[in-house]
Amino acid sequence: MPCVDPLSLLPDVRRLAWQTGAVTETADLVQVGMIGVLEALRRSEGDVSVSYLVACARGAMLDYLRTHPSRHQNLIFAG
Questions:
Q1: Cβ distance 18 to 26 under 8 Å?
Q2: How far apart are the first and last CA of the chain?
Q3: CA separation, residue 21 to residues 12, 30, 42 (Å)
């Protein structure tokens, strides 16, 4: 059982989503980041650090931004 409560990382994940400055909705990035945290906890064998979990959330957000270009970017490059 992990000793880190995933919900305790929600403020950090929200801060990361806000700091991306992406056109994508912040709520979408928060969801993707929390999924990254939960997947990291599922994969871990034993205790994991909070900094590792925050890094996993950030990585999940960046992966999402790379694979899902925003509508705004599509409009800019379509013209």
A1: yes
A2: 52
A3: 15, 13, 29
Query: Which amino acid, 64?
Result: Y
- Give per-residue pLDDT as tens, 54-75: 999 999 999 998 887 765 454 3
DSSP letters, the chain, are --SS-GGGGHHHHHHHHHHT--SS-HHHHHHHHHHHHHHHHHH-SS---HHHHHHHHHHHHHHHHHHS--HHHHHHHH-
Q: Compute the half-sphere exposure of residue 36: CA atoms within 13 Å on the CB side of its CA.
A: 27
On whether the CB atoms of residues 34 and 6 are closer than 8 A, the answer is yes
Query: What pTM value is reported for the model?
Result: 0.80
